[in-house]
Amino acid sequence: MSMKRDFLSMPAPENYVAGLGRGATGFTTRSDLGPAREGPSEEQMKEMLAKRAASLGQAAPSAYGVMERREEDEEEDRFQDPDNEVGLFSSGMNYDKDDDEADRIYQEVDERMDKRRRARREVREKNERDEYEKNNPKIQLQFADLKRALGGVSEEEWAALPDVGDMTGKTKRARETRMANARSYAVPDSVIAAANKSGELETTISTNDSGDGTMTNFASIGAAQQSALTVRLDSAASQTPGTQTTSTGTASVDPRGYITALDKKQAAGEEVPVEDVNRARLLLESAVRTNVHNGPGYVALARLEEVAGKAQTAKKIIQRGCEMCPKSIVVWEEAIRLNRDVLHNAKVIAASGIKINPKAIRLWMAAIELEQTAEARKKVTRQALDHNLQSVELWKILINDTEDIEKVKMLFAKATETVKLSEELWISYARVSGPEAAQQILNMARKAIPTSWAIWVQACRLQEELGKSDLCEKVMERAVKALIKENAMIKREEWITQAEICEEEGDVTTAVSIIKATVGWRLDEDDERRDTWLQDAKDSIARGRYAVARAILEYAVNVFIYSTTVWHALADLAKHHGTTEETHAVLERAVNACPSSESLWLLYAREMWQANDAVGARAVLARSFMQLPGNENLYTRAVDFEVDAEDYDQARAFLTMARSSAATDRIFTKSAALERQLGEHEAALDLCNQGLQVWPASWKLHAIKGQIYESLSKLKEAQEAFSIGTRANPKAPVLYILLSRMQEKQGAIVKARSTLDRGRQQNPKSAELLCEAVRLERRQGNINAAEKIMAVALQECPNSGLLWAEKIMHLEKRTQRKPRALEAIKKVENDPQLFVVVGKIFWAERRLDKATTWFTKAIVVDPDYGDGWVWFYKFLEQHGTEEKKAEVLSKIALAEPKHGEIWQSVAKDPKNVRKSAEEILMIAITKAEK
């Protein structure tokens, strides 16, 4: 059968050139319609000739022989950077300044676009991560409550659990094989005797505390558990959300070698073990032996011998190091240090090292330190400068050793002439010179170093010291323009740091000028400039640099003149770190810029009232009524001012005006509360009824109405008011709680439970209703029922600090409170109620420092939580100092807390309406039960 070769009818292979094997190449003529195919390269011709020679069994021609590619070249081609433009793209292209500018602009655009999207992207990623963790909780968290419930399983129930049977044949066969291969051994008599006594029970406990390991010390185990829980509590409270503290028992190894660890032990007064010294000596001697020119090895070995107390051996080793490593600066420095006990020897060694290394600045400085007199030091320093004229350190040493101010100026002149690029020398020269000379020196420095921002800052500070504060801003404006021209402008954050340094050193005007000129650098209108500046001001306030923060906020309000957020930040800064006049001036500017801002008007009136300027406060409110007619918040603030001034007729007049122009449920609530405070119960009830006709779902009006009836001992009417309120507004948990307590007072416990159950149905996952149900059962002595309700409550509201606090303090044994507190803190982050609970636990254990720490954490996390202040001051009354109590009283007056069960029960009592925060605190302390 013949084979038909059809390759002649097939298309030519890619890159095929006819006649390539015999050396033919392609060519182009004018008659061609297009360019001819490019001929093969020299490398291709070599490769084709080599293949042809190999097929014929001949050697490749020497002129066209193909050399084998090295493996290294192949590896380089494989891992070549694809973005590196080589070959075709590299020919004829020059990278000039325009390309550099274009690349820089593209890079800045990319950075700004990424910056604009970063915040939203991070928020989105955080939400997605939280949603994933919520939908996919860990196994241990899902079964935590079930694990705790296993503690109530009796021994009979445990014994009744069936054994897990082996239902697989594979396991059975493996067990049979294992049993067949098992070997038996003779059992000693001691094992039989021990097994015979294993079922006996001991009725006595030995008091042997010898620590020989034969007896268990239960007291030590309990103390260790308490200590471990305390450490874990502190760690849980201090660590940030999303982080975990991991402790291991492995020892850390210093990567810098053994010598550092040995030096630390010696500095701490510990005795260095001999085996450690021997081990380190063996390693270092091996390192020196294998590399005789290893200078750091000689230094390490010499220090080891020094630690071991063999000073002479150390000197011999370092001397050998100087001989073997004459160019190693560290070896000569170590030799000088080891021989400082004999000053002459140290000087000789320093001279030898300097002779070999005349450019070594550190050796010259070590030699200078060996001299005892100023003249000798200057002499050595001059010799050093002869060899190292550009060394700033040597010039500084020479100038510091010179006492005559005129000679100092001459040295500075010579130093700046020699080392023209040293900012430090120029600035120091200007500081020791007079005002006129300093200006000339700084001008010369600016010309010598046009890219130095420090010289411009020093020039600005000089103008402030000369009393020319008006020139500071002009100097900084020129500085910014010059630095931008030289492309030497530093980052905005670095400018803020320099401004804070100037404020710290007393140059406040310079700091403000720096902020005005640079705080907007590299921030476009599209960027979130307002938030950036607010954060910058907040950071400066945290560092105690209030002038810088004020300058940042002043710049921000000039840009965002209609932003109430910026005005509030500036007013808050003036209030806490300024004078009353400054605060009023800022608020006056704020209300003029934002006349429709209710919060700014209220803040302005409040600051006026607190400054004992009642006339000014009333004038501010009158102006606010003209700008915001019918605003209920302004009316309520005016009523508060009049009540504080005991002008109740004027307060009633304001409320009458408010009910006619801004008839809201809050206005009716305020009116009824005022009449109730004044003892006019009938008028208060009438106002409640009027308000409920317009606002039937206002739970506050229902609550006030029921409380008025309760104060009048009309329990039936009070119960009816609360009941109507729960039907009118079933989403108000407070009304269900008030109604259940009223029914409990009347002895209708079943009705009270039914009311709370009805409230829980209308308000699922309400921590207040769940906690009240637990407390109802606890007050009735049904601890088991309270624990069951609490278990359900923590499943529905696992992040409620109120429920955890109730469980820890009232449903847990004293020994189990710390573990539950630790578990609660891990689930509920930064809850002041839990911090107060932990403080009370430590207080009961007489661990006063720990209790103080946790009470302080509670008031710092949430100053508005009044119960934290109550318990902290109650603790200080027993274990605190007068200074600490006075500090707490001053802080609570500024915080003005509004929340907390104990605090609200006292503050909202009509008898205590006009009392100060300090007076309410004292009453609440008597009401709080430890």
From TrEMBL:
<feature type="compositionally biased region" description="Acidic residues">
    <location>
        <begin position="71"/>
        <end position="84"/>
    </location>
</feature>
<feature type="domain" description="PRP1 splicing factor N-terminal">
    <location>
        <begin position="12"/>
        <end position="170"/>
    </location>
</feature>
<dbReference type="Pfam" id="PF23241">
    <property type="entry name" value="HAT_PRP39_C"/>
</dbReference>
<keyword id="KW-0539">Nucleus</keyword>
<dbReference type="GO" id="GO:0071013">
    <property type="term" value="C:catalytic step 2 spliceosome"/>
</dbReference>
<dbReference type="InterPro" id="IPR010491">
    <property type="entry name" value="PRP1_N"/>
</dbReference>
<protein>
    <submittedName>
        <fullName>PRP1 splicing factor, N-terminal-domain-containing protein</fullName>
    </submittedName>
</protein>
<keyword id="KW-0507">mRNA processing</keyword>
<comment type="subunit">
    <text>Associated with the spliceosome.</text>
</comment>
<dbReference type="GO" id="GO:0000244">
    <property type="term" value="P:spliceosomal tri-snRNP complex assembly"/>
</dbReference>
<dbReference type="InterPro" id="IPR019734">
    <property type="entry name" value="TPR_rpt"/>
</dbReference>
<dbReference type="InterPro" id="IPR059164">
    <property type="entry name" value="HAT_PRP39_C"/>
</dbReference>
<feature type="compositionally biased region" description="Basic and acidic residues">
    <location>
        <begin position="39"/>
        <end position="50"/>
    </location>
</feature>
<dbReference type="InterPro" id="IPR003107">
    <property type="entry name" value="HAT"/>
</dbReference>
<keyword id="KW-0508">mRNA splicing</keyword>
<dbReference type="InterPro" id="IPR045075">
    <property type="entry name" value="Syf1-like"/>
</dbReference>
<feature type="region of interest" description="Disordered">
    <location>
        <begin position="233"/>
        <end position="254"/>
    </location>
</feature>
<dbReference type="GO" id="GO:0046540">
    <property type="term" value="C:U4/U6 x U5 tri-snRNP complex"/>
</dbReference>
<feature type="compositionally biased region" description="Low complexity">
    <location>
        <begin position="235"/>
        <end position="252"/>
    </location>
</feature>
<keyword id="KW-0677">Repeat</keyword>
<dbReference type="Pfam" id="PF06424">
    <property type="entry name" value="PRP1_N"/>
</dbReference>
<dbReference type="InterPro" id="IPR011990">
    <property type="entry name" value="TPR-like_helical_dom_sf"/>
</dbReference>
<feature type="repeat" description="TPR">
    <location>
        <begin position="832"/>
        <end position="865"/>
    </location>
</feature>
<feature type="region of interest" description="Disordered">
    <location>
        <begin position="21"/>
        <end position="98"/>
    </location>
</feature>
<keyword id="KW-0802">TPR repeat</keyword>
